[in-house]
Design brief:
alpha+beta
Amino acid sequence: MRPDMVWGLGGKADRIGKRFQAPIYYGEPPPLQQVFVNGYRVFGVPIAPDVRGRARSGVTQPLSLQVKTILASIHPEHIAEMSYVPARENTMALNQSSNAVFIVPKPGVAFEPVRGSFIEEPPLPLREQTETSVDAAHYRERLLGVFDELSGLPIENAAVIDTVTGLRMFTSATGTVSLIYVPDGGSTLRIRKSGYESLLLSVTVSLRDTLPVTVTMLKSK
């Protein structure tokens, strides 16, 4: 950082008086007071133990412990741009933006208070996503197929009824129906079609049970 950021426009310590070991500024602005990252003021950050330790040992500059903690959490190699707005100026048109430093991280770098700056992890390619993450969006669409016992042909317009909720859907021309209306965990289904014997079927709907279910129906005698 430039000396005027650390010491203020008043200069180094030889231009700062002391009373009871505390610095007194004679008409000159104090050192840097605010830190902005990506246009947002960072404040309320807990003081880092190493920063507090250096302050107690006397190895420090006249910045507040809060400002030191925030700046120490930002890796220099993560910074794309850093600009300083002196005291008594407000060129950024933001509250408390005078006597402040504005930091813009490099692309791919994120910042969080306390955590500081870090490299964002790129999203995994689809092939590398876990089975759970892929199935999570589709397991509710488990399919049920209804076919003729003898001919193997699909049975259209067979009613598939959830015996718990009473909800029902009908099979398509391909003999299939989505079980999206069946609650998580599963239920018992009653399958009806005019001219066929009714069926009762227990099905499970979960992340581990996603394969299509196939049933066959016998024609009534």
